[in-house]
Amino acid sequence: VESALGVTSCPDHLKCLLASVFSLLADEERPKGQEVDLPALGLKILEPFLQSEDFALKANGLAGLTALFACGAKAASKVLQASQAPFLAILAAIRRPPPGPEGREAQSSGV
Mean per-residue pLDDT for 46-75? Predict the structure, then answer.
């Protein structure tokens, strides 16, 4: 997943992949011993991209956060509480996105 987040040339494929991965990880019917700490894992995966100075990578991190919210709102809320990075990335995307497709992609994911 982290390798896919580092690719900035195909955002639509990335969104599908992230939705699939987070849907599988958010499954609440896992047997004992196979549970996943989705907030911790989501933060570990997304935080480096949300903190990136490269706005295309930040847009990928925001797309991942959007997918996490769609698949597990409670987990995504805990991610927002655990770190400043998601909140700051959202603010940066809304307030001053750079011109071009990366800025528009980040802004649409941030809203």
Answer: 91
d(CA 13, CA 4): 9
Average pLDDT in the chain: 87
Nearest C-alpha neighbor of 80 from the set 52, 106, 42: 42
Nearest one of 103, 111, 41 to 71, comparing CA atoms? 41
Q: Distance between CA atoms of 107 and 109, rounded to whole angstroms? A: 5
Tell me which H or E stretch contains 52.
Answer: none
For 8, list phi and psi in degrees, rounded to 5. -110, 10
Is the pLDDT at 109 greater than 70, yes or no? no
3-state helix, strand, coil in the chain (%, to 5): 70, 0, 30
